[in-house]
Amino acid sequence: MRISVNGTHLNVLEQGSGPLTLVFMHYFGGSALEWQTVMDQLADQYRCIAVDLRGCGDSDAPETGYSVDTMADDMADLIQALHIKSYVLIGHSMSGKVALALAARQPVGLRKLVLSSPSPPVPEPIPDDERQKLLQGYGQRSSAQQTMKNITAASVSKAIQEQIIADDLRTSKPAWDAWLLEGSKEDISKRMADVSIPVSIIVGTDDRALPPDVQDKLVLPYVRHATVEVVDGAGHLLPWEAPETLTIFIQKKIADV
Length: 257
Prior knowledge:
Oligomer: single chain
Helix content: 25-40%
């Protein structure tokens, strides 16, 4: 379904029901589809909502409006529009930073954050040459294929590989450029003292995009309620590479909500 929020239309996947809602957000160059297998395993207990962020997947792609705070505004409006009262935000990579920004506002009803390899609240350590490769390779299948190889470590099916590539290629240019040139460089670390809820982080040991030491050095010093666990042999795309392990992690971390 498509929901109009904050001046744009966002594509939303929904399944399941329950008093607690799990709100899933995706990585840079991804879509809500990465969460489908996880949601399938959780929908018998929880209402599950997965969102294509603006400019990604099947959501609208305005020319401007891709700051971390604008994406957080989108999510706040969406949560209100869907009448969500009690929820856990589940972010991945880029959207981990969005989740942290929203949590710092201390919105009513937000119980916990569960973050997979989140982008840190300080500027993300993307090497300049890698940033340029990504900018120059936009929209090219060969570049999307190389990115897929770079950000996965565990074996995934051919169908999943094709979906990862397809999501990369359908990301809009305004969203693509804005994250690489602006959003990933934003510093929201001064707000992290206002994140008062538990933050549970999970990361693959073989994550080459945001390795475990990024969490230790650039997230934990700022987010005082955060803990980190690792998944052996997995890369950056845990929802695709290790959905069962990720589902168990989420269940464990939200069991007392």
